[in-house]
Amino acid sequence: YSIIIRVTTGCNFKTTANNNSKTNSTKTESKGNCDVFECLDKIDTNATLEDVNKVIGFEGTSTSSGNGWEKYEWKLNDDDIVTVTFYKESGKTDIEIEFDEKEKRNSKINLSNSEELSKAIKAGETVTYEDFKKKLSGNGVQIFKDSSSVKYKWIDKDAGTLTASFNSDGKCTIIYGVY
Question: How buried is 57 (Cβ within 10 angstroms: 0-12 exposed, 13-18 middle, 19+ buried)?
């Protein structure tokens, strides 16, 4: 195995990936109203703490705060966590999820074309989510959203990962991975 960590700025987006899929039968059920992927999909980027508590079905725990922001966490089970950062002045939120990546490994994902994507982004080309899907042979798993961007992760059968952020214009802005 070799480990490569690459960060490139520059990507393109305008889609919502469906993260719902059958999970391993040994997976612990969510203690909330939704699994981690459904929660990410259902929580709006303008949601209040009360809105998120209602979507998930129980109260989150404040984990940190700063000047004008507060971060909450909802632990759905041993592996799955929804983290939401609330920004007081703008009323916006960042929603991020953590999950057992073994559940989303995909034998069809081919990370060998990631260098080609990285070079195109470095060259200033517009690279979209659709481009990633074609080059990597499948959908990414949405892991983050805010009012101006989304982030997807592709996980291959050997646990290699590639993560890309896409702005509201659909352009990839950051790409990094370990594979």
Answer: middle
Please give the backbone phi and psi of residue 80, each rounded to the nearest 5 degrees, phi first.
-105, 125
- CA gap 41, 142 in Å, rounded: 9
SS3 for 129?
helix
- Residue 81 CA: distances (Å) to CA of 49, 125, 126, 145: 16, 35, 32, 15
Q: What is the pLDDT of residues 87-134, one digit of tens each?
A: 999 999 999 999 999 999 999 999 999 999 999 999 999 999 999 999
The model's pLDDT over 15-69, given as tens digits with 9 standing for 90+, comes to 334 454 433 445 678 899 999 999 999 999 999 999 999 999 999 999 999 999 9
The model's pTM: 0.83
Q: Find the length of the chain.
A: 179
CA 63-44-36 angle, 5° bins: 60
Shortest CA distance to 12 belongs to which of 100, 105, 131, 119? 131
